[in-house]
Every structure is written in structure tokens, then in C-alpha cells.
Design brief:
It comes from Marinobacter oulmenensis. Pfam families: Plug (PF07715), TonB_dep_Rec_b-barrel (PF00593). One of its GO terms (molecular function) is siderophore uptake transmembrane transporter activity. There is one protein chain. Helix 1 packs antiparallel against helix 2 and helix 11 packs antiparallel against helix 12. The protein starts with a strand and ends with a strand. The radius of gyration is 34 Å and the shape is globular. It contains 15 helices and 47 strands. It is mainly beta and 1015 residues long. It folds into 4 domains: 98 residues, Phage tail protein beta-alpha-beta fold (3-Layer(bab) Sandwich), CATH 3.55.50; 120 residues, Ferric Hydroxamate Uptake Protein, Chain A, domain 1, CATH 2.170.130.10; 628 residues, Beta Barrel (Maltoporin, Chain A), CATH 2.40.170.20; 121 residues, no CATH class. The strands form 9 sheets. It has a 22-stranded antiparallel barrel.
């Protein structure tokens, strides 16, 4: 049962009951009865509704009984317990107080905000009002304002890619919508990959961010946590006590302009298009895609290029609830901010080094001036949402949800934005629009029979189907091979269909008054299909101008149990474990192998050849022993004596050169062996570990180091072996434990410690062949293994502050993941040793009714990635004469160059502060929000870039210091009509979002006017 933090002083009983109702979110109907002559007891501390009523009524002579009523109401029956209270004859006539709704049915948003301080885990929450107020220009803006939480590639995906405390990627931070999951990992060319969750903010009612793994009921957390979103429901549309309701929401914003979408030339002869050059390099300069962005003077304050509306209708009946909603938004390309672009306008530092070449984002504002239109950022979204709930009885419900979102949006391959250099024409192109149709179905059943301690059951059966045609294939919208094949084709468009089917089950049992057991489990089957879009793979003609399509199947299931024990009012424990298992299969690989386009075996090396030079002196006798037989053989064959002499001398000199002189001879009798996962440890290098201390010119022959001497080639052949690469199922399984302990220091403060582990198995993207990131043929990937420690202190401040809510929470965490699945420098997925992230967070809130404020601060002490094999690779000489790379250390900040982890770093310090007040009987509300994050720097990356240049692939982008200011004014004219004016980025800052994979500036100053009509 839900617990609440109370601070109700002794007062008139009827007033105290009203205060209790306000704090618990229930409504009390008291009829004509009053208790003005009866005083309540003071109520303080963290209590359930049952405990609170007991303390509140203590000593008043009034008792109570909780009984379930009709229509899911919980009735509180009051009765006399002191004879002196019954001054008249007969039974006492006291009223029945009806508490509307189950005490566990606290309104969604209030429950979410309270959970930040009530639950023994780190969470953040955003409610419906806040979502609609600050939903911004892109779905990624949903997470803006949560300290330590970001979204990857926020402006070039029209999707969410959650990043929690620096952990991001498929399976690491799963996102669910009403219990369903839809995510597809998209290749971003030379800028890595992003895990896209397509979502329409116009349908979202609440977002809960769970930070770190755990065993939360009906939620599958990854190694980094989870993002749990819920859509709007009947309670958002139908007022309490009403049976019918409807809501119409209208919005209009400035700050954008309609995109000027180019026409494709598919099927045309490239020679008929002026200035078109065939081939990959030529198509990059396609003149039909070039466009001059609109300038700040075109940013009309009263423009209508961003508008949205939503209509929702619902009904609440005795035996069923129903709701249907339609939402639409059309937003053009946004304009960037116009102020404080200095960080992005500094291509050279004080020493004259070219910062923009080493850190490309430093030249962003030169190619894309502040205040200009940001191309390829438009979005058009249309959604339907339907919900139907059958109330089988007072304790049983069956609910069906249908959601369909179609979106048409702008995006471009990140490498095309940069273009060549940072001049005025750099990357100024507008691509055609991508499209996505995401459908979801879910059927949820709950059963919690009265007076049955063994059954509190919940299940959810769901299915999602996401059809996407996106410009993510890596080619160009208009491509032609040349005169022999002059017709233009589209090599940039990738068609995919991703289906997921899942089940979630759980049941909670009260074994004792102080001991609960929750059993749970989930199963998910995923199927990915990719269309060739007319670009069938042919190994004889494919030139790498576009990526190969991925296709496969994946299955994962898990079962878990959790005990919750409360041995005393001060102390509680939770412990449990999860067993999980998975398999995956690469259908595209199998298809291509059966067609003979891909090999079913591959030659690998057990180690690297180590060579050195010895100096020997050959004798004339040795030389003669080869010369004379060769000479005699050539003469016998009919050659002239002079020609026989030349040939015989050559043969003898090859075996015994320079008789009588010192002659260098390459030896290759040693090897540097890899471990059982194909990784190399510098401690095993014979050149440096002392094994060959007595030789000179010790050389390691790395992969692809050019033509080798005969001795090296012969030794290398000895180390080669062949592996079978025929497509087969990949499997894995594991147990992971969970434990937490909570101690209530006082009625107002507590501390908890939490330890949790999680395993992450290879995702669909990591289990299938593609371009720029493939499986290692010789070694199966191990699952990631995360260990998370969390220590938190929570203080209820209402004992000192006269407020409805006043809470403070301090959290320290350490997250360590071993066997991290990462792309290595050879563009293969491998397990690297570990990543360690440590940090601290502060969360606080206060609400006095007239004034309210909340804040969040996140500070990362450490984000360290360690891997000896990666360090070995980057310690090799990069240029002639170089002996050491700054990456020779086993552990580096954020990650190694060329991998994905280094692009997922977040600000060392981020913070937010919200302030507001309610006036005119709460009809008028004024508020503001400040969001800050610190400039990012990576000393390891900077040193590497200065000495060896840009790595060239998946270069991470940094960002400058930022403080944005938002504000709003909301006024409710009556119970049916309300209006709100919101301004975001009021100081018009020029900036990019953390964890971006694209050089796209965020939106500048935007004003939005919204009207909500309820009827």
C-alpha cells in the first residue's frame, strides 16, 4: 500500500480530514456532517492511509473501518468507541465518509512526482502538464530539463535515444510506451549509430526515468535503467464524478519555416541534369540538393509554420471506460539561436592549431550562422490513440490499447552536413523526407481479489509493428554509376520493418504481514526485415556506396522473484534475482551465404608474427656449393657459359649473399599470441616483455602492415587457421541478483543502500552483418555484466516548512559494466574490459500551494573506459617516427576513438531549476525553468587529435557551456477554457545538444500559445 509523508497539526477534525485528502490525492465526501467540536491528533511521518487514519482519529472517541464500496470506491465508516460520545438514545448517527478511488489509485502524475522521494531507487518524473508545456521541437525535448538524462542525436532523428548518466544504446536503456517496446538501431555513417524510439509527445501523459537496473514490478530495466512512458487516458479527459468528457487542445508556435523539399530524379539520365557528376564522390555535390538556408530576418514572430491540435473524447461508465484521441502537428525547419556562438565559431586556438579539424563542432557557426534556418529538421506527425477498459468486477479489469503514429520528417546523414571545410557553402543541403509508421497493440489484465493475500496479478500482452523508410542507408538520394549505367537511383533510402511481440506477467503475494513475495517474468520476440529498395547486393559490383540491409530474429525472456521484508517500522529489506536467456539469428547472412554471395569460412590468426634482424657472414665455400651445381645444370640445358654464370650467381646470392661480409637476415621465429577472445595484451609482446631482449630491430607485423619478407610470410601461415562462419543461432543465459536495505532514521528521514546487477545480451544490430560494424567471426560476444551501487539520503522538510510538499534527496552511485559490447578499431563488435561511471545527484522540491520550486543537479565524478586490447591498438605508431600514442594507457576518459561509447558522454555537471507561483485563486500560474550544462572536454581525445589528427570515423562532438531560460504564463478563464503562453530559450542561445551525432544547432527562441477547451 502506498505510503505518504504527512505533517498535519492538531486542528478541527473536518479540516484535518480535508488536509489528509489533499495530500493523498483522494476526495472525501462528508455530506452535511461536520466535526468542528472534535479535534484531531497531529499527524506526522511516512504512513499509509490506514496508519494515517488511525493516528488522526486517535483519542477522539471515533473509530473507523475501511471497506470497499461500489464503483471502485473505498469507504471509511466512522463509529463511536467512547460511550460518553453517545449522549442520546439509540445507536450513534455518524456519517459515512467516502474516499473516492482505491487508496493505491493516486493520480498518475502525483504518484510519479512522489515516487522520486517515496521509492527506494533513483527516479525522475515528468507529468502531462510539464510535457505539454515544454515538449519543444523534437521528441528528444521530452527529456530536456532532467539533470543527467539526455537523448542522442536529438535534432536529426525525430526520435528518442535515452541516455541515463552516460549509458545509452540498444537494450541498455529500454523505453516502453504503455508497456510496449519499439526501438530500432540506425546506422549513421561515419558518425556511429543511434537507437531510435519513435514517439509522439502529443499522446504522452507521463514519463518516469528509472536510473540503474533493478527488479521493479512490470518494468524490465537494462544495465542503465529504463524510461517508462504512459499515454493519456480517460482520467485526463473525463472529470471526477462525470461520465463523459472531451478535450480540444490547440497550439501555435513561431521559430520555424516550411521545408523546401527537393524532387528526386530517380529513373532519369544524369546527363540531362546540369552540373550532375556521377559516382559516389560526384553525387555528394548533387546541385539539386543544395539550398541556401533562410536567415534570421525570415523568422517571423507570427509565423504559422508550427501548429498542432489534439481532440480526445472519453467516457467513464460503471462497467467500462473508453477513450479515443487524435493528434496532429506540422512543424517546419527550426531557426537556431543568435547569441553566444563563440564556442562554435573558434576554428583555431591561440597556438594556431585547427580546432575545427580536430573537433569539427568548433566551426559549426561559421558554416551555419547563428539565427539561420537549420535544414532537415522539419516534422509532420499524425497519431490515433484508442483505449477500452472492461471492469469485470470491482477487483478485475481488462484493458485494450491501440496506438498508431505516422511521421514525415527531415534527416540527413551526418557526414553530409559537414561537407568539405567550413565555408559558407558547407553542407547546405536539404534531403527528401523520411517516413515512419509505428503501430502498437496491448491487452492488459489485472486481478486483485478482496481478502486474498495470494493474488495481486497483472499481465500485459503486446505487439508493435514499425515500418520505416528513412534516409539512413549511407548513399545519396540521386546516384548514377556513369555513362555505362546512366540512370539515377536512390542509394540513401533504407526500408525496414521491425516487429516485436511481448508478454509481461507478475503476481504479488503477502506471505506474512511483514513479508511480500513478487514473482514476475517477460518474453519478447523481435523480427527485423529490410527492403533492398532496388539495391540488391552483388559482391562483384557493390562499391560500398550504401550499407547492406540488416535482417534477423531475436528472442529474449526472463523470470524474477523479489522478497520485501519489513522486520520493524524503521528497517526494511528487499532481495531477489533474475534469470534471463536469449537467442538471435542473422537471416540476411544466411540468405547471402545460400546465394553464394558471402563466404561460409574465414581465415584468422592465432597471433602476430614478431621478426628481428640477425647479421651473418657467409663463406665463399657456401656460395660455391650452390653456384657450381647451378652452373653445370644451366650449361647442360644448352645455355651459353656467360648466361649460365649470371643465372647461377643469382641463385647462389639469394641463398648466401655477400660472402665474406656482414649480411642482415630477417628472422621470424617468435609470435605474439592472442588470448581466447582474440585480444592482445602488451605484456605478451615478445619485443617488450623481455623474451627477445637480446635482439635488435624487433618488429611486430600488425594486420595490414604491407609486404612482408619471406620469413615473416612463412611464419604467418603457421599461425593461420580457418573458422566456420555459417549463419547459426547465438545464445546466452545468466542469473543476476538484487538487494536493498532501508533505514528510517526518523519519521521524516531515511537512508537506503541498493545493489543490483544486470546482463545485456547482444542486440539485433550487434547480432547481424552490416556496414561499419560487424560480428567478430572467430569469437561470440559475451553479455554485458553491470554492477550498480546506490546510496541515498531522503529528508522530508515539512516538519520545518509549512508546505504540502518539501523534500530533499541526495544520491551517490557507482556503475561498473564488464564485457562492454563495443565497436573496435577494426569495425567489429567486441567485448572490452569495463566501463566505470561514478557520480552524485541532488533532487529537491517544495510546494506551499501559492509558491512552488524544484531542482535537480547531476555531477559525474568519473566516466572511465578500460581495455588493454584497445590500448594496444592505439599505442602503435600512427605516423613515421612516432613511438607513443596518448592512448597507450589502458584506461581513458569516456571511451576509445572509433568506438560508440566515446560519443555517449554527457556533461560533467548539469542542473535544472523550476520556480513558479499561483495567483487569483489559482486561476493564474506563472513560472520559469532554467537548464544548465557544463562545457565538455576530453583531455585524452584532445591530445590524440593534436598529435595524430582526427581518427576520421565516429568523431565525438563536444559542446560549450549553456544556460537556457524558459518561462510560461497560464490562465484558466473558467472550468472549460484555459490558455498558456510559453517561451523557450528566451535568451536565444546558439548551441548543440549533448550526445549529438550531427552538426545541427538546437532551436533558438520560440513562443508558443496554446488553448485547452474541456467540455
Amino acid at each position: 500500500m502506498t505510503a505518504y509523508n504527512f505533517n498535519i497539526p492538531a486542528q478541527a477534525l473536518d479540516d484535518a480530514l480535508l488536509s489528509l485528502a489533499r495530500q493523498t490525492g483522494v476526495e472525501i465526501v462528508m455530506g452535511d456532517a461536520v466535526f468542528a467540536d472534535t479535534r484531531s491528533q497531529p499527524l506526522t511521518g511516512r504512513l499509509t492511509l490506514d496508519q494515517a487514519l488511525s493516528e488522526l482519529l486517535g483519542g477522539t472517541g471515533i473509530g473507523y473501518e475501511l471497506q470497499p464500496g461500489q464503483n471502485n470506491r473505498m469507504e471509511v465508516h466512522l463509529h463511536e468507541i467512547y460511550a460518553t460520545r453517545n449522549t442520546g438514545g439509540g445507536a450513534p448517527q455518524l456519517p459515512i465518509i467516502e474516499v473516492l478511488g482505491n487508496p493505491d489509485d493516486v493520480p498518475r502524475d502525483e504518484k510519479g512526482y512522489n515516487a522520486v522521494y517515496d521509492d527506494n531507487l533513483a527516479t525522475s518524473y515528468i507529468g502531462k502538464t510539464e510535457i505539454e508545456r515544454y515538449k519543444g521541437a523534437n521528441p528528444a525535448d521530452l527529456l530536456n530539463g532532467i539533470a543527467g538524462v539526455f537523448s542522442g542525436d536529438a535534432r536529426n532523428s525525430n526520435a528518442l535515444d535515452p541516455n541515463i548518466r552516460g549509458i545509452q544504446g540498444p537494450g541498455r536503456v529500454p523505453l516502453t510506451i504503455d508497456g510496449t517496446e519499439q526501438a530500432i538501431t540506425v546506422w549513421r555513417g561515419y558518425n556511429g549509430a543511434t537507437n531510435r524510439n519513435y514517439i509522439d509527445p502529443n499522446l504522452i501523459g507521463g514519463v518516469q526515468v528509472m536510473k540503474g537496473p533493478g527488479l521493479e514490478r512490470d518494468v524490465y530495466t537494462g544495465v542503465g535503467g529504463a524510461v517508462v512512458t504512459t499515454t493519456i487516458g480517460v482520467d485526463d479527459i473525463v472529470e471526477p464524478g462525470e461520465t463523459f468528457g472531451a478535450e480540444l487542445k490547440l497550439e501555435g508556435s513561431n521559430g520555424s519555416v516550411d521545408p523546401r523539399v527537393p524532387s528526386l530524379h530517380t529513373g532519369e539520365d544524369y546527363r540531362d541534369i546540369d552540373g550532375f557528376i556521377p559516382g559516389m564522390l560526384g553525387s555528394l555535390g548533387d546541385p539539386t540538393l543544395k539550398l541556401e538556408p533562410k536567415s534570421s530576418s525570415d523568422n517571423d514572430l507570427l509565423s504559422s509554420d508550427d501548429y498542432a491540435y489534439r481532440l480526445a473524447v472519453g467516457t467513464r461508465q460503471d462497467h467500462f471506460d473508453a477513450m479515443i484521441a487524435y493528434a496532429y502537428r506540422d512543424k517546419g525547419n527550426h531557426f537556431s539561436g543568435s547569441h553566444n556562438a563563440g564556442f562554435y565559431s573558434t576554428p583555431h586556438d591561440s597556438d594556431g592549431d585547427t580546432l575545427a579539424e580536430l573537433n569539427p563542432i568548433r566551426g559549426l557557426a561559421i558554416g551555419f550562422p547563428p539565427g539561420d534556418e537549420v535544414l532537415n529538421t522539419s516534422s509532420e506527425m499524425e497519431s490515433w490513440l484508442g483505449k477500452l477498459t472492461w471492469k469485470i468486477d470491482e477487483r478485475q479489469e481488462l484493458s485494450y490499447t491501440l496506438r498508431d503514429t505516422e511521421s514525415l520528417y527531415g534527416e540527413v546523414m551526418p557526414s553530409r552536413i559537414r561537407g568539405s571545410g567550413y565555408g559558407s557553402g558547407s553542407g547546405r543541403i536539404q534531403w527528401p523526407l523520411s517516413s515512419v509508421d509505428a503501430q502498437a497493440h496491448s491487452l492488459k489484465y489485472t486481478w486483485n481479489p478482496e481478502h486474498n493475500q495470494w493474488i495481486d496479478f497483472s499481465s500485459n500482452f503486446w505487439f508493435t509493428d514499425t515500418r520505416s523508410d528513412t534516409y539512413t542507408a549511407g548513399g545519396t538520394p540521386n546516384f548514377a554509376f556513369g555513362p555505362d549505367d546512366p540512370l539515377i537511383i536512390n542509394t540513401a533510402l533504407r526500408g525496414q520493418d521491425n516487429e516485436r511481440t511481448g508478454v509481461t506477467l507478475s503476481n504479488k503475494m503477502a506471505l506474512l504481514d511483514s513479508l511480500d513475495l513478487t514473482l514476475g517474468g517477460s518474453w519478447q520476440y523481435e523480427k527485423l526485415r529490410s527492403d533492398s529498395m532496388g539495391l540488391d547486393y552483388d559482391p562483384d559490383s557493390w562499391n560500398g556506396s550504401w550499407s547492406l540491409p540488416r535482417a534477423g530474429r531475436r528472442n529474449e525472456w526472463e523470470g524474477n522473484f523479489r522478497f520485501d521484508w519489513r522486520p520493524s517500522s524503521r528497517l526494511s529489506f528487499s532481495a531477489g534475482a533474475r534469470y534471463s536467456s536469449y537467442w538471435s539469428f542473422d537471416d540476411y547472412l544466411e540468405e547471402q551465404q545460400e546465394a553464394g554471395n558471402m563466404a561460409t569460412s574465414e581465415t584468422l590468426d592465432r597471433g602476430r608474427v614478431v621478426s628481428w634482424t640477425e647479421y651473418v657472414v657467409y663463406t665463399q665455400e657456401q656460395w660455391d656449393s650452390v653456384y657450381q651445381p647451378s652452373y653445370d645444370e644451366f650449361v647442360a640445358a644448352g645455355l651459353s657459359p656467360s648466361l649460365a654464370d649470371i643465372l647461377a650467381s643469382s641463385v647462389a646470392s639469394q641463398q648466401y649473399p655477400n660472402p665474406g661480409q656482414q649480411t642482415p637476415v630477417v628472422k621470424a621465429d617468435a609470435a605474439w599470441y592472442a588470448d581466447d577472445q582474440g585480444e592482445y595484451d602488451r605484456a605478451d609482446n615478445p619485443c617488450t616483455n623481455g623474451e627477445l631482449a637480446d635482439v635488435e630491430d624487433c618488429t611486430v607485423w600488425y594486420e595490414g602492415t604491407g609486404t612482408a619478407p619471406d620469413a615473416v610470410r612463412e611464419k604467418k601461415e603457421e599461425l593461420e587457421y580457418t573458422v566456420d562462419t555459417t549463419a547459426e543461432k547465438k545464445r546466452g543465459h545468466a542469473w543476476t541478483p538484487f538487494f536493498s536495505a532501508t533505514f528510517n532514521i526518523t519519521d521524516y528521514s531515511r537512508v537506503y543502500f541498493r545493489y543490483s546487477e544486470a546482463k545485456r545480451y547482444p542486440s539485433m544490430f550487434e547480432s547481424t552483418v552490416g556496414f561499419s560494424a560487424n560480428q567478430n567471426a572467430g569469437y561470440d560476444l559475451e553479455p554485458e555484466h553491470a554492477r550498480n551501487y546506490e546510496l541515498a539520503f531522503i529528508q522530508d522538510l515539512t516538519q520545518w516548512v509549512d508546505a504540502d510538499y518539501a523534500d530533499l534527496k541526495l544520491t551517490y552511485y557507482q556503475h561498473r559494466t564488464e564485457n562492454v559490447i563495443e565497436r573496435d578499431a577494426h569495425w567489429q563488435f567486441d567485448n572490452i574490459e569495463q566501463q566505470t561511471i561514478r557520480g552524485a545527484e541532488l533532487q529537491a522540491r517544495i510546494d506551499t500551494g501559492g509558491f512552488f520550486a524544484s531542482t535537480g543537479v547531476s555531477y559525474t565524478f568519473e566516466n572511465e573506459v578500460c581495455d588493454e586490447s584497445s590500448a594496444e591498438f592505439f599505442s602503435r605508431p600512427r605516423i613515421s617516427g612516432s613511438q607513443k600514442s596518448p592512448y597507450s594507457d589502458r584506461c581513458v576518459q569516456d571511451g576509445f576513438m572509433g568506438g560508440y561509447l566515446i560519443t555517449q558522454a554527457i556533461p560533467e555537471l548539469s542542473a535544472n531549476l523550476s520556480l513558479g507561483g499561483r495567483f487569483l485563486n489559482r486561476d493564474l500560474e506563472l513560472g520559469t525553468r532554467l537548464v544548465y550544462y557544463k562545457e565538455h572536454s576530453n583531455k585524452d581525445l584532445e591530445e590524440y587529435a593534436r598529435n595524430y589528427g582526427n581518427f576520421g570515423v565516429n568523431t565525438p562532438f563536444t559542446w560549450g557551456d549553456l544556460l537556457t531560460v524558459d518561462a510560461y504564463a497560464s490562465y484558466r478563464f473558467n472550468e472549460h477554457i484555459a490558455m498558456e503562453l510559453t517561451g523557450t530559450n528566451l535568451t536565444d542561445q546558439y548551441y548543440v545538444d549533448p550526445a549529438t551525432r550531427s552538426m545541427m544547432a538546437a532551436p533558438g527562441r520560440v513562443f508558443k500559445l496554446s488553448t485547452t477547451i474541456n467540455f
